[in-house]
Amino acid sequence: MNTAAPKEKLRIDKYLWAIRLFKTRSQAADACDKGKVKLQGSSVKASRTVNLGDEYDVKTEARKWVIKVTGLLDRRVQYSEAILHYTDLTPPEELDKVKSDASSFHTGKRLSKIGRPTKKDRRELDGFMGDDEEEAPVEE
């Protein structure tokens, strides 16, 4: 029994979830509703039927995809099998942009010289400004 046998009609939200562009089917449906999934420049609804040869522009949180449907897949399968059901046509410029963002994006670390000072920076500032803990005694 083939567990990945497609049905006659397959919704775009289910397809995008099955090929692992989105973590959940509801995220795929939300992307469709927000206009982040386009077919030939026009937004598609989550219920749109997927056909072989369709080219979709998909914008996820991580990157922008341009995919061509090469096979229908209605169940979520492992990544190595999922990539056989679409062709990635994303322009190289978009991929380069993602690589440059990836080094500092989503790491949780702040970029050097940007944002709040570290404890060490704060101590150096306090020492420079003369705001040491030593205060003059108060005379009565």
Automatic annotation (TrEMBL):
| Bias type Acidic residues, positions | 129-140
Where is the chain membrane-spanning?
none
What UniProt keywords apply to this chain's record, in alphabetical order? DNA-binding, RNA-binding, Stress response
Gene Ontology MF term list: DNA binding; ribosomal large subunit binding; single-stranded RNA binding
Q: Does the keyword DNA-binding apply?
A: yes
Region labeled Disordered — which residues?
97-140
Q: Which residue ranges does the record assign to the RNA-binding S4 domain?
A: 10-71
Q: Which Pfam families match?
A: S4
Q: Where is the composition biased (Basic residues)?
A: 107-120
The processes (GO biological process) annotated in the record are:
cellular response to heat
Give the family per the record: Belongs to the HSP15 family.
Q: What is this protein called?
A: Heat shock protein Hsp15
Q: Which species is listed as the source?
A: Filimonas lacunae
